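Q: I have two molecules that I believe assemble together. Could you output structure tokens for the complex as a whole instead of separate predictions?
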Amino acid sequence: GAVVSQHPSWVICKSGTSVKIECRSLDFQATTMFWYRQFPKQSLMLMATSNEGSKATYEQGVEKDKFLINHASLTLSTLTVTSAHPEDSSFYICSAGTLLNNEQFFGPGTRLTVL
Amino acid sequence: SQQGEEDPQALSIQEGENATMNCSYKTSINNLQWYRQNSGRGLVHLILIRSNEREKHSGRLRVTLDTSKKSSSLLITASRAADTASYFCATGRASGTYKYIFGTGTRLKVLA
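A: Yes, here they are, computed for all two components at once.
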């Protein structure tokens, strides 16, 4: 149980385009989903926390207008990188959790390359 | 800033040896998780230890938690070349916003 999937697993796009990444909890309902970013050889940095049906809470320094997060259901959250630039190239990882026991389960990640 | 600091940052050992990685954190936690990440890949969950637990085992893995010192350790016994990866701790806070903060990670290299 507790499987989280991400789609796509990798994406290459041109500078200026927008990219949407999906995060799904496959066998449980996630009250909260988190989005992380990881640059090469660095740790994961939390970008934002989203609760189903409400606006996401962004970490300091993360542009909410650039990284649009939608958590429309208890099993799906999406991250849209708008007007992507090469510096947005990174590994994006989501996690899903429930308030029941404060445990989180991570997706396999999406590698974004912006040319 | 990140909550967790791990040491060492890098560790190189011979196959068969034990590897110990440490994680220190700053605020009270609800639980702590250890993850492995192979280069360029996603996270693999290893162990979750709750704040009321002191030690957990899973196969060749042993995790300890000392809440008084705000630290945790991950021990990999009889290491194998396949254990080569980066290892991260992630702490879930006891109060305030429910979220996990990752440590800086330890890059482990096991030499065959």
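A: One point stands out. The first strand of chain A starts at residue 4 and ends at 7.
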